[in-house]
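Section 5.1 Outputs to date
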Amino acid sequence: MKLNRRGFLKTCGVMAGYAVLGFNMTKEAVAATMQFVALRQKAVYDADANPAIYEFRKSQDNPMVKKIYDHENGFLHEGPCGHESHHLLHTHYVDRSKKLEALKAKGIELSL
């Protein structure tokens, strides 16, 4: 069985609950948590389905976004695909694997 980090932490939490609280209390705690998650999920989906609570459903309809990209007076007047907006709003990948390998070769232990 292969576990990812989230699954491992969840399993450890449940096992710690069993060790401290016993089976019945842990089962009730897990059930209460799952009930809370279900209620929260339902609330999010209900809010998303109700367009009356959102003034602007799409970012391009937001007047502040329109003002930023205004062709005459806007901060990013070149438009959404302009050089300045690309420079400010996009991230860039930097390969640091060689530096990490050099640190490991020196015997430095890193917890990632």
